[in-house]
Queue: 4 jobs
Job 1
Amino acid sequence: MDELLYRPCVGCGYCCKKATCVLGLGSPCAYLAQHDGRYWCSLILIGAVTDEELAIGAGCCSSLNSDRQRMLREQAKSVEKSISKNT
């Protein structure tokens, strides 16, 4: 059986935008919030559930996730700016 390729989670919100968990409300999920440059589940931020309970941050397995690629580009630009400020 082929194994799915999981890439590290970057907080792009793709999963919650495409399919909500059992606690989610609508699509995209009403609990999806942007905070500190990434998406988070508001229920986790307030301590109502844990990321393990919802499998958040487990990693991305979607080859169609263009949001993840965009987030990685933005993170790389941010690092480059930070490095150039310090040199």
Job 2
Amino acid sequence: MIKKLQDAFIVFFLFVSFNELRSHPPKIDQDLPLYYHSHEPRGFIGGAAGVKGLEKYAPTRTSSRHQLNQPLGQAKADQIAISLGLDKNLCFTKEQYLAFITGQGADGSGNPEDAKLVDESVKLLTNTCGNPLIRIIDGEVTQIILGSYGLIVNEAGMLESPANSDAPTRQVNAVIQPGGYMSTWCMANGAEESLNMLYRSVYPLQLPYAIAAQHEGTDAELVLYLDRLQSAFTGMSMAPSVWEVNFCLIYMLNPGLAAKMPAYWAAIPKKVVKALIQSPNGQVPFSEYSSYFKSGKCKTCFQPQCY
């Protein structure tokens, strides 16, 4: 099965380059209200929704502050994995994961530079309570938790979607495509069954929808959820099709890390959405917009979340 996919451009975390596909990008009127009444069916639209019937396994919208940025937890992650066609017994072993993520491997199959990109990507997509990003904001060390919003803050302090061309989660696609670091490493280190499991799961089914979601988006890489007066935008990584592909990949690498993925998605504040869409590169200074994000209380440590 792996051999059949060698010529396919399968991307990691679905953050691929669509410059050639965006000759006619959708136009967004910056003056239109971002939360509007709609007669469309409730839910995510277009490629973001993914395969019919699979959306129920993706995160649901937050209904209280206590759900904000909460991780799935291992029991829920294992349940979702079974529903998506994954077998925990066929995932990387702890030894394989450590070797893979540190760039080690048999017969020179390791690559520290590529491994670092994978490690950074996983950390960004598991940015939930108990797993904060550490950034220097206005000269101060700051813990940032934005997983439910589908947003990240890069090392320069800029707020963006994980699908932004600046993000490791986008740059890493060549590392994980067939013939890249992940597939060659697996075949050289006894993890070929893990790849076969991935390709037998819903991963290849959701992949085209996730790609379409990005093709339908703008440089801000946000997705729309329709719900009449409660319509909202969230980051690309929280779109059902994208989230499930990310989940499959991370679970294959390390089920414990997949358990740290966001359990709920949250609406990005309207002013932040407008700023990101109006930005020429889909980025805005986090220090200027941090006050718009709600803080909650972590169920694990019961401490206020920074953001």
Job 3
Amino acid sequence: MEKIVSLCKRRGFIFQASEIYGGLNGVWDYGPLGTELKNNLKQYWWKVIVRDRDDVVGLDGAILTHPAALKASGHVDTFTDPMVDCRTCKARLRADQLAEKNGTKQCPNCGGRDLTEARPFNLMFQTQMGVSADPASIAYLRPETAQSIFVQFKNVLDVSRKKLPFGIAQIGKAFRNEINPRNFTFRSREFEQMELEYFCRPEQGMDLLAYWLKERIKFYEEIGINRKRLHILDVPDKDRAFYSKGTFDIEYEFPFGRQELEGVAYRTDYDLQQHIKASGKALDYFDEETKERFVPHVVEPSAGVDRTVLALICDAYDEDSAPDEKGKMETRIVMRFHPRMAPIKCAVFPLLKNKEVLVAKAREVQALLRSHMNVFYDEGGAIGRRYRRQDEIGTPFGVTIDFETLGEKGEELRDTVTLRDRDSMKQERIAIKDLVETISSKIR
């Protein structure tokens, strides 16, 4: 894990937030490559969940949330983790994650066993709206994106004119004041979610739970996650939310252990019923065919953007051997991202930077590709070194403009380039006019 964290900073995937001021615990900034990777993930999720379907629409809800909405959902009263204090080193710890030794829980920092009794700690960030600091001005940063979907259910239903079953999808930030943020970006205080609330008739719930579990596993395979590192946990009754009739956790084998990537839960009609009771507003559905009015049930696939980005990085990281410019074998760090997830799709290299005709042609190729994909131009250093730099950030393809491109070794090779594959390091000769279609077909 240390190698991965180091690479993330060195190559501009992820930085500690406010690092020059000592950092902000549990908060992270995404650098240039991390931003591209994150956006690729979100865009593909949106394509699969919303754009490629007729039964799902989108929503972008507010982060600031009315306290009454979170009171109705149960977050104000019950969204807590058990917390203890270590009397020896004064650390505050999450009680249910402490290791035991000889049947006694101990502090992971100092090894002390003098701990306070566990008490509930509410995980929501509270703030004030307006100019006066009184109870009427309290608002919260949302702890999940789901509640704005439930609150806006009737409005979305009215304007979209969808029939059951249908879904409302959202990607957005959420905030939880975690007692112990840990494992790099896995458990953070500010994070992003990709959530779908899929509304249905009560009798459809269990079948749709199985359907969405299958769909979500397929999604992770499509973005390049190794299926062997994915595991499905059928959450037992005692560990499920009381309103859930079934929950599956999709887990990934991180370097620090198997952890949840996504939950797929059949939440019944609990959320809509809670908001109906608290608001007094109708959040039901009228079936035109059966003339029946009822409150829909919901199946929720809920994924973490940051956790999935971390899984992509961990899954992609690899080391192998490759020859340097003198033919000597050396260790090569390579990020084997699926091409559709890779931050940069193609790098363009003139063989020599001091040959103006090569540079000019390389710039032409860069301009040709740029409108179709994210392209990086690099003319600094030996060509082998440039390949290695792109391997380390996961660029799947490299295009080299050389003297053959200029026709100096035969007219039949004029306006052709070498196309290099990151994983195999094999190169093929290809016409410039065929580059866009060849590369595009591999990154979709």
Job 4
Amino acid sequence: MKYEMNEILRTGIVVAVLNLLALILHFCIDKFVVNRLPWDHAYIQDFVSFVIISITILVIAIPEGLPVAVMVSLAYSVKVCTHGSEPYE
């Protein structure tokens, strides 16, 4: 059982890192190579979003992290339900 858990953890780490690299590479190619846009400080929010997505993948890949992911998802849903469709007001 411990071997399978280690394999799941390794796979989760690899997938999270590859996902982060793919998101950053796609973003940079699209913004700076294809569209030839200059750097804007607003892009930092996109990079933070990419890191959050990768951390989420990593947390969900860890079997012990599943209850935490479910709890965060439910808390977000409750916040949306109590504040209407705008959770960040």
